[in-house]
Amino acid sequence: RVLRPGGRLVVLEFAVPRFPPLRALYLFYFLRLLPWIGRLLSHRGSAYTYLPESVLSFPQRQGFLDRMAAAGFTDLAWEDLSGGIVCLYSGRTHP
Fold first, then answer.
1. What is the mean pLDDT of each run of 10 residues along the chain (95 residues)?
2. What are phi and psi of 92, to 5 degrees?
3. Is 40 a domain residue?
4. CA dihedral over 38, 39, 42, 48, signed as positive or negative
5. Mean of all residue pLDDT scores within the chain
6. Could you give phi then psi for residue 80, rounded to 5 degrees?
7. How many C-beta atoms lie closer than 10 Å to residue 55's C-beta?
8. CB neighbours (10 Å) of residue 3?
9. Which of 16, 46, 87, 91 could form a disulfide with 73 if both were Cys (CB 3.0 to 4.6 A apart)?
């Protein structure tokens, strides 16, 4: 995609919750239950292990903002949504 000068980029991405009890439940579900349910229902377990692997390898919060800054974005911000299960990132291109 291409943004015009001063354009705004908004990214909604899965994230790992920071609150320890929610993080533990989330990781148990995401890494253990989701792949098991996926194999049981679809017989294609690999499809249900890809998403957790992808989310865990994605740079979290400030790490993603650092990459956006390195790409030239300004006015950077992130906001946890749904208890930190998803994160909203935003930034602007130079005018």
1. 91 96 95 88 78 91 97 97 97 92
2. -125, 150
3. yes
4. positive
5. 92
6. -75, 140
7. 17
8. 12
9. 91
**For residue 21, what are the contacts with CB-CB under 8 A and spacing of at least 6?**
none
Position 77, amino acid: A
C-alpha 42/C-alpha 48 separation (Å) is 9
Q: Is residue 33 part of a domain?
A: yes
In this predicted model, what pLDDT tens digit does every residue of 5-15 receive, in sequence order? 999 999 999 99
- Please give the pLDDT value at position 85: 95
Give the domain extent around 49: 8-92
The pLDDT value recorded for residue 52 is 87
- Specify whether the CB–CB gap between 93 and 10 falls below 8 A: no
Residue 32 lies in a domain: yes
Number of domains in the chain: 1
pTM here is: 0.85
